[in-house]
């Protein structure tokens, strides 16, 4: 029998499950207040994946509007803050479906570009993001608390004068 899988908008009532998954899956953990603020301010752009009614993954994202946006110079950007799927539910397309849901919600809120940070060692995630149209924009050395570097990956309109680091070939 096939299980019932869905992706839906995250709700404040999901916060404890989201925090639990974050603590189990990622070394980057945030405070309860941080999760609360993101879910209350940007819940439209946050998602959870469920299998048979159990939350198995989440995505937290937000819209960032630089001051210049208010005077019409730059567009808003989406920022994928955190995404995680419980280990036993990985490699089944759930992360990709959660990302697609969140990306669509950001686009519906007039975001032209979406960016995220990913550990350089997280090859599976990098490949998934590339499949979704993200490209490696640059590398932040020693970005994470444990000293590991991060790739900043971006989806959407590239600026004409934008230079992309020559990292793509080594991760293609």
Task: Give the helix/strand layout.
Layout: E1 5-9, H1 15-25, H2 32-42, E2 47-51, E3 54-64, H3 67-70, E4 77-85, H4 94-108, E5 113-119, H5 123-131, E6 135-140, E7 150-156
List keywords for this structure.
Aminopeptidase; alpha+beta; 7 strands; single chain; 5 helices; about 170 residues
Explained architecture:
The longest helix is centred in the middle third of the chain and has 15 residues, at 94-108. This protein has 2 domains: 1-111, Aminopeptidase; 116-172, 3-Layer(aba) Sandwich (Aminopeptidase), CATH 3.40.630.30. The chain is an alpha+beta fold and 172 residues long. The chain is globular, with a radius of gyration of 16 Å. Helix content is 29%, strand content 29%. A hairpin with a 2-residue loop joins strand 2 (47-51) and strand 3. A 7-stranded mixed beta sheet has the order 1-2-3-4-5-7-6, with helices on both faces. The protein has helices spanning 15-25, 32-42, 67-70, 94-108, 123-131, and strands spanning 5-9, 47-51, 54-64, 77-85, 113-119, 135-140, 150-156. It is built from 5 helices and 7 strands.
């Amino acid at each position: 029998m096939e299980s019932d899988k869905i992706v839906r908008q995250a709700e404040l009532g999901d916060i404890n499950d989201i925090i639990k998954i974050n603590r189990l899956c990622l070394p980057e953990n945030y405070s309860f207040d941080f999760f609360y603020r993101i879910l209350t301010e940007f819940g439209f752009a946050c998602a959870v994946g469920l299998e048979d009614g159990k939350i198995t993954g989440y995505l937290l994202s937000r819209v960032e509007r630089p001051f210049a946006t208010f005077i019409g110079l730059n567009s808003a950007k989406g920022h994928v803050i955190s995404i995680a799927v419980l280990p036993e539910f990985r490699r089944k397309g759930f992360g990709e479906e959660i990302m697609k849901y969140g990306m669509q919600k950001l686009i519906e809120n007039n975001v032209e570009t979406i960016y995220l940070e990913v550990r350089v060692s997280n090859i599976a995630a990098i490949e998934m993001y590339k499949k979704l149209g993200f490209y490696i924009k640059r590398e932040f050395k020693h970005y994470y608390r444990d000293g590991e570097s991060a790739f900043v990956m971006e989806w959407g309109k590239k600026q004409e004068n934008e230079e992309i680091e020559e990292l793509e070939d080594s991760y293609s």
